[in-house]
Amino acid sequence: MNEMLRTLPRTPQPGRELSGDSADALFGLPVSMPLVLDLDGTLIAGDLLYKSFLSNLRQNPLVVFRCAAWLLGGRAALKRQLALRARIDWDRQRLHRDVLALAIREKRAGREIVLATAADAVLAGQLGSRLTFIDRVLASDGRQNLKGSAKAGLLRELFPAGFIYAGDSAADLRVWRHARGIVLVGARSSVTDAARALRRPMLELPRHCRA
């Protein structure tokens, strides 16, 4: 992973679509406004909840019965219990090269880079500590599932002057409604159409660009 980061391009590769300001200016928004990255399906390929479940399952097949009990405490509680027991090989995780390149470029320009995810804070923190361009990690904490409206509310509270948000799913539409700029990462056509309807400056990155 470290070697990959050293060889990343400083600007996104060709083939992106923009509306509004140029990609180099990232919509012309001030660098005091943070770039917030989703994790599952945006910064990394796949879903950390699924990955943590498989890790637990390999260690103990009977964990499926414990999951049912943990889920009674809510989705965030399930994520926390799985995260505490998971063994994730971060060196083998596939990261999105264009998202990384964009984040690194904006970090060099002086913009704060925030990782905001519904994944559990235990695992999100592990990844965030390995990526030197990440300034802050916001994640599910075992009680609150930081997704959709919950994520949007926290970001609005922390960044009242606005933020740019990169995501990939329908749940991210609730966040994009409050964002000053939208980065779409391999989103389905229905999500893309809904995001365009918000009439925000937008950058589109493909899903397949992995490293």
Short summary:
The protein is an alpha/beta fold. It has nine helices and seven strands; from the N terminus they run αββααααβαβαβαβαβ. It is 38% helix and 15% strand.
Task: Describe the protein.
The chain has 211 residues and is α/β, with parallel strands linked by helices. Helix content is 38%, strand content 15%. The protein contains nine helices and seven strands; from the N terminus they run H-E-E-H-H-H-H-E-H-E-H-E-H-E-H-E. It has a seven-stranded mixed β-sheet with strand order 1-7-6-5-2-3-4.
First-residue to last-residue Cα separation: 9 Å
Label the structural class.
alpha/beta
The stretches of 5 or more residues where confidence is low (pLDDT under 50) are 1-23
Strand content: 15-25%
User: Mean pLDDT, nearest integer?
Assistant: 87
Cross-sheet strand order for the largest sheet: 1-7-6-5-2-3-4
Number of helices: 9
Order of helices and strands: HEEHHHHEHEHEHEHE
Share of helix, binned: 25-40%
Kindly provide the radius of gyration, computed on alpha-carbon positions and rounded to a whole number of angstroms.
17 Å
E-strand count: 7
Shape: globular
Major β-sheet annotation: 7 strands, mixed
